[in-house]
Amino acid sequence: MTKERDREDMDALVSKTYRELPTPRAPDHLNQTILRMAEKKGRGRSDFLFAAWVKPVTLAATIALSLAIVLELSELPVTSVAPEVAPAAREELAPQETDRLDQAEDRARSKLERVPTPAGANYSPPADKGLLEELVLEDTDSAKSEAKGKIESFAASPSAAALPAARKRAADMPDSNQPAAISTVGFAMEIGESELSTACDERARQSADSWLACIDQLRESGATLDADREYEAFMLEYPTTAADSESNK
Amino acid sequence: MALSREAMAHKLAPGSAALCRTAPLAYAQRMGHIPEDSALMLRYKDGDTAAFETLYKRHNDALYRYLLRLCRHRATAEDIFQDVWGKIIKARSSYRPTAKFTTFMYCVAHNCFIDHVRRNKRHANNTELEPDLHADTSESPDTITERSLARERLTLALRDLPEEQRDAFLLYEEAGLSIDQIASVTGSNRETAKSRLRYAVNKLRAAIEEPQ
Description:
The complex is a heterodimer. Helices cover 72% and strands 0% of the residues of chain A. By secondary structure, chain A is mainly alpha-helical. In chain A, helix 5 crosses helix 9 and helix 6 (125-137) crosses helix 9 (178-190). The longest helix of chain A has 32 residues, at 82-113. The radius of gyration of chain A is 50 Å and the shape is rod-shaped. Chain B is mostly helical. Chain B has helices spanning 5-9, 16-19, 26-31, 36-45, 49-71, 74-90, 101-119, 141-160, 163-173, 179-186, 190-208. In chain B, helix 4 (36-45) packs across helix 5 (49-71) and helix 5 runs antiparallel to helix 6. The longest helix of chain B has 23 residues, at 49-71. The radius of gyration of chain B is 18 Å and the shape is globular. Chains A and B meet through helix 1, helix 2, helix 3 and helix 4 of A and helix 5, helix 6, helix 8 and helix 11 of B.
């Protein structure tokens, strides 16, 4: 009814004239383009349906992947990264430390070898060994003080004559070298008791000539190791004479 | 030639619901059946491309003429024509037969035209004269001349109408929409649509009856 009333409002002449106007048709190329587009889009499922399952699946996959990465990272041991750094650090530190320890060992060994054996005393290396062993094992200040007490008790033994000189030499050593010296003592124990004993007695060491004569005798008797060790001690004690008597070597 | 605020506010948005907001088709709900055009669109939604071809061939020429006379420029009309069908194809998945398909289609076309006007302000100067090829040889020469002049005047008057009035007239005559449907397509109320149509018809009649 509304449409009929609307139609009455329209002018019949205007409508008739408009109907007589030319009626252009949609171009064929447009028709083909649009129908081809419609066929292409309509062949598959609609975008809406595609998005309906692709989006949730994509979201779920992203969340799952993120969780997996987080869990994987959280389960990795912390030390797994450290070995990558540690060798470099060790390489930097090792040469310095090793050199320092080597020097300290050499110094301590020579000082130990230079401890005079009391003349005529019944020197008891095993007692010294026990003492030294404890010194090696106890590398703390308290252990050092305890060891001092043991050294004092050792003064009563036949080897007590050698103790003051050894104590004096130990006191001369800088504190920083003490642990190294103690470890050097341990090293000295490892090389054997015979190597700790001096081949030339105190009387032979009283003068450079007699010490060199003793070294020659040792060398002639075939005890070359003892001779070498004595010569090293001799070099420390008489460096200028040692240079002159290089031919003894 | 400025568009009304109502027409401007009738924006094009994604999805068929936003492409054209039309009131639910009352008689379709009452009768409990789906209009044929809508049924074809629903079949195309399910992948039946032949249904779309039928639908397209049913409406393509009328839509083309509507756009050609609304734009007054053939190339522009062709661009908008392709754009309109592209949007209809894209909106198939969310299409719901809440209104006549033609209302939905012309709503999309109207919005595409508004977008074009906004994008290209020089649209008003792009006019092409449409040759009058509709000469009926069965009439007498005087009648032919008189009718031909009337068509020419109508064509010129239609071209000079304000866009809102031309749009209302074309939607009524070419698309066959009612006042209510025109109001729905243009995003205006019924009285505004009716007023625009009445102004357009009066101007066109005056142009046709203009004494030589």
